Amino acid sequence: MKVIPAVHQRILMTTGARKVIKFYLVINCGSSSLKFSLYDSAALAQVWSGSISPIGTGTGQMLIKTNEGKILESRRAKFQDLDLAVQEVIKWLENKRDSYPLKAIGHRLVQGGPNHRQPEFVTPVLLKTLRQFVYLAPNHLPDELMAIKAFGAVFCQVPQVVCFDTAFHRDIPSVAKYYPLPEKYKKKGLMKYGFHGLSYQYILQELLNEDQLASKKKIIIAHLGNGASMAAVNNGSSVDTTMGISPIGGLVMGTRSGDLDPGALLFILKQDHLTVDQLDDLLSKKSGLKAIAGKSGVQELLEAEQTDLKAKEALRVFCYSAKKYIGSLSAAMGGLDMLVFTGGIGEHSSIIRERICAELEFMGIDLDKPKNTMHKNPLSKKNSRVAVLVIPTNEELMIARLVGHLLSNKKK
Q1: Which strand (E) or helix (H) includes residue 109?
Q2: CA atoms within 13 A on the CB side of 46
Q3: What is the value of pTM for the model shown?
Q4: Which residues of the chain have pLDDT under 70?
Q5: What is the pLDDT, as a whole number, of residue 30?
Q6: Ordered DSSP codes for 213-267
Q7: Which positions ≥6 away from 65 have C-beta within 8 Å?
Q8: How far apart are alpha carbons 219 and 199 in whole angstroms?
């Protein structure tokens, strides 16, 4: 990625005139954090990035720094909710309108319903439509829509663009997309949407930049973080993914259960008489690794596993879950040519990658342990039938690219 100095204003000399270069602001709302980045709209190069974390859990930190590491803002405060965090970012940008004139604002949206998958300009009609699909993503969509409204109120002349995390999976075949339930539920939007799509799209673009033949290969991309999923990509398109109608399903995650026998849900409801919201809270925030070991962070679990049997068991469950899905997605594609690790855990934890790949030699996955430890591609041995890679993801840059593409098409 091309890097430019984090100056307060870039000016180009074109035919003797001074032209101010405007910027794309990218907003990525998380469940306990807010990430935001600024990109030069001409070069698509990041100028600075920022975050507010944690949100809603005591004292958090607002940190903004340039690509060169210069800190533009660093302060601690109690960010009670995402709304307050968004207002802090808006206030900071308002004071620097002249330094960072905005051309557009791009938002990551976790969900847009069955008919909104491609990037779109924000309009009152679109916002009204998206509010109807809050029930599909009640833990994410309300906050994301709140952020769009807040930025629109202050930067009312700046176009806003929504980029849906489900877009990458929009064309998965019907055998993978729909659940074996009565037709009426399909009509209400019950289907496999899949998530982490912006990450998968970025990784696929990176692969194609290095090797055009990647568009003909059978690839599994493993986005492993506190939220984790995998996607099966065949001939350049997503054909299946582990998450379904919500980001709760699929792999065992930090605080999310992953896939469960429906009977387990019925058991919980009958035994504890939970409401729908209480069940959602249990599956989203109190399950997964946290339920097994009391901790949700993989690095924390790795540090504790020598003396904590529950931590060791949680890691075994996580790696087993990942290993199992590599097998099932490979079967769905009829083979495997490439396995790509990304996300916070996938990018940084060589020991988790090693444990996931262990005993998969029968599938052609043969990890080179020294190269894996050094995070040096390819992570697989020279004669490995399946190439194993690690590629850092960049959802914010992907959003900036999509915003630029949409604006360019509008001009045409």
Answers
A1: strand 102-109
A2: 19
A3: 0.93
A4: 1-19, 412
A5: 84
A6: GGGGSEEEEEEESSSEEEEEEETTEEEEES--SSTTSSS--SS---S--HHHHHH
A7: 48, 49, 50, 71, 72, 74
A8: 14
Residue 162 structure tokens = 């929504």
Active site residue 171: no
What span, in angstroms and rounded, lies between the C-alpha atoms of 351 and 318? Answer: 12
Domains of the chain: 11-164 (3.30.420.40), 212-395 (3.30.420.40)
| CA separation, residue 181 to residues 38, 117, 192, 263, 326 (Å) | 44, 23, 12, 15, 26
In a 3-state reduction of DSSP, which class is residue 322?
helix
Residues facing 77 on adjacent strands: 60
Comparing CA positions, the residue from 331, 174, 173, 172 lying closest to residue 238 is 172
- List all residues 6 or more positions away from 393 whose beta carbon is below 8 Å from its beta carbon: 199, 202, 203, 223, 342, 343, 347
pLDDT recorded at residue 364: 98
3-class secondary-structure state, position 401: helix
Written as one string, the DSSP assignment of 61-86 is: EEEEEETT--EEEEEEEE--SHHHHH
3-state secondary structure (DSSP) of residue 321: helix
Q: Which residues are CB-neighbours of 224 under 8 A, at least 6 positions away?
A: 251, 322, 341, 342, 343, 344, 345, 346, 352
User: b or e along 383-398 (b: 16 or more beta carbons within 10 Å of the residue's beta carbon)?
Assistant: ebebbbbbbebbbbbb
- For residues 177 and 189, is the Cβ–Cβ distance under 8 A? no
Residue 148 CB contacts under 8 Å (≥ 6 apart), including other chains: 107, 122, 127, 160, 162
Q: Which long-range contacts (CB under 8 A, 24 or more apart) does 324-331 make?
A: 325/230, 325/242, 325/250, 325/251, 326/220, 326/222, 326/230, 326/356, 326/360, 326/363, 326/365, 327/360, 327/363, 329/220, 329/230, 329/231, 329/232, 329/240, 329/242, 330/218, 330/220, 330/232, 330/363
| Rounded-to-integer distance, Cα 358 and Cα 343, Å | 20
Parallel, antiparallel, or unpaired: how do β-strands 228-234 and 218-224 relate?
antiparallel
**Three-state secondary structure call for residue 119:** coil
Q: How far apart are the first and last CA of the chain?
A: 27
For residues 219 and 222, give the distance between their C-alpha atoms in angstroms, rounded to a whole number: 10
Q: Which of 40, 143, 165, 240 is catalytic?
A: 165
